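Dear support,

We are seeing what looks like truncated structure output for some complexes. This example has two components. We would appreciate it if you could run it in full and send us the complete token output so we can diff it against ours.
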Amino acid sequence: MKAFLMYRERDFDLKRTLPWNAQALTQDLELDTLLNAMALGDQFLLEVARAAVLSGVNEELGTVLYRQGVLRDCLDHASVVRDIYALAVGAIEGEKKAYFYSYFSKHPDAILDRAIEVLEMFVGMLKRLRTIADQHASAFASEGFKTFFAMLDHELSDEYFAVVQDHLKGLKFRGGVLISAGLGQGLKGADYALRKPEGRKQHWLRQAFAARPPVYAFTIADRDENGARALSDLRDRGINVVANALAQSADHILSFFTLLRTELAFYIGCLNLHGQLVAKGEPVCFPLPAAPAERRHVFAGLYDVCLFLTLGQKVVGSALAAGNMDLAIITGANQGGKSTFLRSIGLAQLMMQSGMFVPAESFCANVCDALFTHYRREEDTTMTSGKLDEELGRMSAIVDHMKPNALLLFNESFTATNEREGSEIARQIVSALVAKRIKVFFVTHLYTLARGFYDKGMTNAVFLVAERRADGERTFRIIEGEPSQTSYGDDVYDRIFGNAEQDRNRP
Amino acid sequence: MTFHSILFARAEDRATHEISEAPAFFVDLNLDQVVAAITIGKQEYNLKPFYYAPLHDVDAIQYRHEVMRDLEDRSWFESITAFGNKMRAMRAHLAQADKLYYRLQKESWFLDAVEIYCDAVNCLAADLGRADLKSRGFLAFRAYVADYVASDRFTALVAETKKLKADLAEVRYCILIKGNTVKVRRYESERDYSVDVERTFERFKQGAVKDYTVKLLTGPDMNHVEAQALDLVVRLHPDLFARLDDYCVRSRGYLDETIKTFDREVQFYVAYLEYVAEFKRTGLRFCYPHVVTQVKEVYEYEGYDLALARKLILANSPIACNDFHLRDPERIIVVSGPNQGGKTTFARTFGQLHYLASLGCPVPGREAQLYLFDRLFTHFEQAEDLQNLRGKLEDDLVRIHDILDQATPRSVVIMNEILTSTTLQDAVSLGKKVMARIIELDLLCVCVTFLDELAAMSEKTVSMVSTVAPDDPTVRTFKIVRRPPDGLSYALSIAEKHRLTFHQLAERLDP
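Here is the complete output from our reference environment:
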């Protein structure tokens, strides 16, 4: 039995290895803000959200659409979904409680008892799950939920519950334990196996006259403690295998509930986030993912969800219509929203690829096979050659992990040297990446770099600037525009010298 | 050709009684460590006496070389170790049978022991038939085993053992435990309950889960409940268990004496070859020495001290090999040179090689011709005692006197740092006297000394020195080469490295 709510035919593995650069992505995109908003303080939800969002870049296009369907159902039937989730959590916690008492048990007897107890509890939970399915299945529309409810209907029939309960009763051994054995080394009993006593189907008269095989017996004296211990030891050998089988079955059902809980946890996280966004009237939409080989970034009203969550108020969205773009270079005013824009690009990509809605009015982008961020590390302020060495080292590590159709976000990279050298290093790196069709967003104030690409007249490059009104006021909107040399120096100069007309090129 | 022993060509080569104490020189030559390493894990065979008894006859050595060469064939070696392992398992079973309390259990373990023995002998016979053997020892043994395996007493033993085992394996029974009562009856194909349970819950299977099977530890003994249950099983099958009783009485003396002796003695070779393999794995070499008695020309190329080499292998350090070659009339190697440079090791190696050769074993090195001695003597410095110089010198001389008194022209003597406890002048004078005695006796000898004067006393002496790396005098190469004594040059080069020569000091002290 599988939940299959995250993949069409695969379990969601919470212990999956995250992308090697998970830590950098988390830091650069301020992912914790997003994940905490999904978890709302629940550690488990946080863990699942982190795994799902960070590993989104490994998912296929089909999986993204599959999850979008499930998520739509969740948004439409939030209370039913939360009920199922609570049921799974209840089953798991009930098991933990039963486990607590027999944790140290080394006796098959105790293992068997505990397994029966847990299974009886699980059977109750499964019946309730079955009831929910019976009541609500027809209202769900997604492939994921339809398959899930159909599976419950098929696997958890009334007849099946009857067979299970029959076993749980029989394994209490009211009629004694019947064990078969052979002769092992030193004539000790070997190959012990628990046998099912034959039911009394024959008429009592026929039984009485049937040729009975010889049966010999002995009885342990009441006060013989060693004998009693030896006898229970023998009994243990008989039930060892079945105790294991039953305990493992309980574990399997537990894994089913765990799986169900894990896979639903992602959607619960989405519900939590959704609630916070719509409450403030921020737009959300289901993105339109394009095939990896395409190069598309077309969106409207895309905003930085983390900035919204931090500020708690509406933030400015940006639009772009890049149909065939490999390179976007963003220049312009400092404090003008360049970093926010870059982060919104990265976050939207991760959210889309994990199957979530995205914070935008509309969003369409090709899925990428890998997402990298290369940010100048703010905490390192010394402009030493050691810093450039560190930057290039990180760049080299990214190249080691490069995949076709990757998306790479640079933020003020290669500035740990002078502009000419930094630009030349960046130019060579970016040119090589773009030639391999790696999609690059590059936020920079390296004018030489931006200008150089601009003058090449590339059809697959887009140039964006942080909007700045003529009066110097920033709108925090990113718009298309020619790289401008006056990134921030002029404004600073103006602020100090009070001269708004200043618009000369500086050497 | 009748078979006597895999170790001795002639029955009379075997010592009348086995020596249990190591020869006097064992510790000096580190042979105690070597033999301990060879025999480790084989205590039950008591192999040390074989390693304490050198041979005195070239043919006896040849006999062992032949056997050893046969065993160098990998598959034959494995056949022999497999046989050894089975015999070992057989003994373990007999020991277990001894320890048990219930008669039926003793009988069962005895039956298993015999089964293992039959299998061991049968496999050995088959392997002997297949193997390409050349040694006198194994060829004679092959004939013996072929006869034994074909004998009535052995074939009958095999058949009866097999039948009894098969019949016991077929017994299956059921026990019903309810309250304090145990019922026993024949098994009647009742269904396996565990399979039923597993099938029922199969649909929930989600990949690997914990194994809840409890490791129910059980010794070979039975408790009285098991024993009572077994007694009831016996009542279900009375004839079968009567046969078992009878078998055990009749088969008591099943073990063949010659096979038993072979099993022990062949381990002499197995142990040595396993030991050798450790060295070969790291690229070190072994060779079968040409053992001579008529001439005293001895040589060895790429030799090394086994005890030291083993330590270095464990520490992953490189091992320096050394050569020597004494041509007539040379008899005595005088070793001098920097300390910690491998002089003592060289002397030990010389002794080890000669001793191992006398056991009929391959020796470390690429090629060797070694002398078969009548006696081997060592004189190694005892722990230094500064309080009692006179006593120590006296003691030195007494010991040397004893050695020279007992030595014959066929003896080998190893001397390490003699006469260190007196003045240089005395040492030179006494050393020369001792050396003259050795020369006179025509002994083969290695003498490690700081007395350069001893190196060129006669045409019988050869000087060899320990060396250092040419570019860094603090680095020792552990190579001992044939060369006149170096005198002071070594000490001077170290001084130079520390800029403490006369000119360097003069320069440094010049303001």
